[in-house]
Amino acid sequence: xxxxxxxxxxxxxxxxxGNTHDAEDVVSETFIEAYKxxxxxxxxxxxxxxMMKILSIRCKRKIAEYVKGKxxxxxxxxxxxxxxxxxxxxxxxxxxxxxxxxxxxxxxxRLIIQLAxxxxxxxxxxxxILDSPHGTISSKLHRALAKLRRMIDLDIPSRK
Amino acid sequence: xxxxxxxxxxxxxxxxxxxxxxxxxxxxIDLPEKLRGRNMLHKLDGIEQSDPPKKFWTxxxxxxxxxxxxxxxxxxxxxxxxxxxxxxxxxxSKTNVxxxxxxxxxxxxxxxxxxxxxxxETTEPGQTAPEQSGGDAVQPDSPETQGGQNPVQDGSTTTPxxxxxxxxxAGKPVENWTTxxxxxxxxxxxxxxxxxxxxxxxxxxxxxxxxxxxxxxxLTLEVVEEGKDEIYAQVDLTGMIDVTTFMIDEGxxxxxxxxxxxxxxxSTYKGFYTQDLAMTGQMAQPGLLLTYQMRNGYAxxxxxxxxxxxxxxxxxxxxxxxxxxTESGYGVLTAMRNATGEGEQITIxxxxxxxxxxxxxxxxIEYEDYSGEERRAxxxxxxxxxxxxxxx
Lengths: 160, 392
Hints:
Chain A is mostly helical. Chain A contains 8 helices and no strands. Chain A has helices at about 1-15, 20-35, 45-70, 75-80, 90-105, 105-120, 125-130, 135-155. The N and C termini of chain A lie far apart (about 45 Å). By secondary structure, chain B is an alpha+beta fold. In chain B, the strands form 5 sheets. Chain B has a 6-stranded mixed beta sheet with strand order 3-14-15-17-18-16, with no helix packed on it. Chain B has a 5-stranded antiparallel beta sheet with strand order 4-10-11-12-13, with no helix packed on it. In chain B, strands 5-6-7-8-9 form a 5-stranded antiparallel beta sheet, with no helix packed on it.
C-alpha cells in the first residue's frame, strides 16, 4: 500500500518544500510515523488521506524550521532542472512560468494547491487533512489560485 | 497547449488549467529509489508500533450504560416510593413523603440530555426530592472539586466538574427542577437549588410566563439567608433559559446555564454583599459544559463539542488547531472579568475534552499525536488574554 501512494507523497512534499532533500526526509519520517501509529488508522480506505495528514504535519514542521533559519526555496531547480523561462518556448515555457509562479506562493499555499489540484482532494477533504476549517481552506485555495493567475498573466501577457 | 482561464476567477477552470500544465511535470517526478518500500524497511528496525489508541469513549460509554442502569433502578424506586409513600433512608429508618396520584412532570434539560448518557432524574409535583431540598451543597474541599475532570466524547456527557479550585467557590452542576408548594420563601413553583455559600443558599426560580412583569425573564436568581424567612437578594436573569452551576468570588456571582439556542451561557453579577445584584457581563459558547473555575477576579468556563456551529469561527473566537492531534473535537474556553464583564474566547480544534484541565493560571489540553505519544498543549491566562502554546 505504501508503494502505491509513496510517489504522491513525495510529489506533495517536493512541491511544498521545494527541495529533494527535505522532501525525502519528510516522506521517510511519514513512513516511520505511520508504521508506529498504524493502529490509529480506523478506516483502511482512508489510508492515503491519513498518510497525507501525517505528511502535511511533517511539512509544516519543516516549514517552521525554514522560517527560523530563513532558508530559501529553489523549486525551479528541483522540478526538472528548468532554469530561465527565456531559454525555452511553448509548453515547457508555460510549465516553467507556472512553476515560477508557484514558487512565489507560500509553502502552505503550495501544499493546499498540491492536495486540491494535483492530488484531487476536495476542499473538505483538504480541510480534514490539514486540520483546518473548511471555509479557511476554500478561501486560501481561492486566493492562491487568483495569485497564481495574476502572476502567470504578467509573465505571459500575450496569452491573456 | 493547456486551455487558459479568462480573467474572472473561476476555481474550477484554474484547477483544470493547472492540472493541464503540471501533469507533464508531475509525470517526470520519480520517487527516489531509497524511498521505495523495500528500501525503507530497515528504518523500522527497533521501532515499536504503538498500542491501539486510548478509547476514552469506551470508558465513557461504559459509565453511561452503567449510569443508565443505575438511574433506571433509581427511577423505578422513585415510582415505588411515590406510590407507597415511604422512603427508606440510608440508616434504614422510614420517612413519610406525600403520595402523588397524578402523573409526575419530568423535567429534561435538553442540553445535557443525549442518548446513552445519564438519564435525568424525575421529580414529582408536590414531592420535595430529599437531595434537592437540602441543596447541592458546595464542597470546595472535596477531591472531586480539586481538579476532577470530565471527558465529553462522541457527543456524550457526564456531569461537569469544577477545575482545580481557584480563589472562588464553585458549586456542582444541578440539573433537576423541584416543584415546591406555595407558602415557603419565594412562594411555590419550580425551583432549582444550585448550592450554598457561607450562610446563603442560591436558588433559581422559573417565572410564570403569564406574569407581565416577568415575561422577558424566564428565570430569577434568589439568594436566601439561612434562618431567615425572606429573600436576601434576587435578580431576574436575561439570556438564559436554564442554569445549572454557580460560582462566587469576592462578591461576584457567575452563573452557567444555557440559552434558547442551546449555547452554554456564562453570566456574572455584582452587588452580592450590597443586596443589589446586577449583571456585569454575559458570554455564550457552543458545546457541553466540561469544567469551570473562578480565580483572581475572572471566571473561566470550558465546553466541549464535536463540531462548532456554522458561523462560530470568527476573529473574536480565536480558533487554533492542535496540528498533530489525532482528536477531532473542539474545546471552547471563555475567560470573563468579573468586575467589568469583558472577556475573551478561544476555540481549540483537536481535543475531545478527555484531557482538559483548568489549573492555576492556565489550561492544559492532553492529546495523542500520530506517533502515539501523549502531548500537552497549553493556554495561559493573562487576564482575559488567552495565549495558546503548542506542545513542546
